Amino acid sequence: MRRAHSPYSGVRVGAALLTNDGRAFTGCNVENASYGLTLCAERVAVVKAVSEGATRFTTIAIASSTKEPLMPCGACRQTLQEFAPGLRVLVAGPRGPVREARLDELLPHAFSPRDLR
Ligand code: THU
After folding, report:
1. SS3 for 20-51, per residue?
2. 20 to 30 A Cα–Cα from 106, which one of 24, 61, 74, 92?
């Protein structure tokens, strides 16, 4: 979250994606002057993990500078469920509280790799 590059929105987000073998891959949001190119912290974390060979995840923890805990956006939900539909999602704002959900509750009836079989 401290490393967020967010001069346009001012919102800082950090994510830590935990693997089934106990590793953590972190990410922050990276905005761009061409606004639509912005990357969310969660997707930065997942692409870092997958590009390092990690594809099995148990939990994602998300922290943000927003007043209320920031829930993962739709694009991040879809990207995460590609790898871990049952992912445990923990979110916290600066004043808490931590909110917890399962990814399949946040993205019910998802389009998934199974649809392409
Ligand atoms: N953002 C995230 O990093 N994760 C989300 O799930 C939602 C939004 C970032 C993107 C942008 O830099 C800022 O929050 C405001 O939308």
Report:
1. CCCCEEEEECECCCCHHHCECHHHHHHHHHHH
2. 24
